[in-house]
Amino acid sequence: MGLKKMKAMGIDIGGTNTAVSICSSAGKTLGHFDFSTPTSAKPEKTIEGILKIIAGKYPLDEIGAAAMAVPGMISPGKGFVFCAPNLGWKNFSVKKAVMKYHKFKKLVFENDASCAALGVYENYSGAKPDFLVALTLGTGIGSGFVSGGKIFSRGDISVFEAGHIKIIPEGLRCGCGAKGCLEAYCGSAYMNNWAWKLFPGTRSAAALSPREICGQSRKGALWAKKIWKQYGLYLGLAVSDIVNLLVPDKIVFTGGLAGAYSEFKEGLRISMDRNILPPYRKSVSTGVCARKRYIGADGAAKLALL
Ligand SMILES: [Zn+2]
Questions:
Q1: First CA to last CA across the chain, in angstroms?
Q2: CATH number of 126-288, picked from 3.40.30.120, 3.30.420.40, 3.40.50.1000, 3.10.310.40
Q3: Of 57, 200, 222, 264, which sees the most CB atoms within 10 A?
Q4: 217-252, pLDDT tens digit by residue?
């Protein structure tokens, strides 16, 4: 079978789950599946485990081009991972590990949030935005920028780490080691570091989960509403910086916490109105991506075809 007639596969590796999307050489999505990531202390073993599971579900010989979405700082060109904290990978050649198991005719790599941004773009209903930013609101904050239908990228290192935009000088400590990053306020793993201050205090701060705060907010609990408003205000600071720098047409939120969009959108709007330069204010809109589960894998499959 010629490469042109062969299918493309996007593999979105997550710390918990790995999602796979398969599409035709013409870019039509043919199917999806996902499974628990078989994590191992040895990154090579994790890759081997992932590919074994995939090969059990789909014949790899039918795949002409594959793309892997990796949750971390990588060199897309070399297929080298500098660090992927959720997988425990550090200075690891993911490309070598993949090729050892299966020699794909074409194999590319990209940061997972960049793939998610392309997935959002490809699945966008209606006129596609020329400049689209996707922010993944999960344990941490991922981000990607798609311009003219292509991921804004460079070959030697991942770019566009909006999660580490500083929103509070000398603020709360982030997992990256610095202080005051967006992630240290709006990542689900970090919310309790400030949210407890707005909570009545009848329970320990650690007992709060974003899902619970969201549920309480929807039921009308004032303390929960305050937390989400503050969340939106924080998020809006970084979003405003992004708008002032890149002037995207659309900012789309994905990831678990995007489910609380209706709760944080008021604070987000206030913050954006305060901080975005007036001529840009009307040109950008925000929204959520409803198709979250396979969005990164879809983007990776499309990337494999480019
Ligand atoms: Zn940081």
A1: 19
A2: 3.30.420.40
A3: 264
A4: 999 999 999 999 999 999 999 999 999 999 999 999
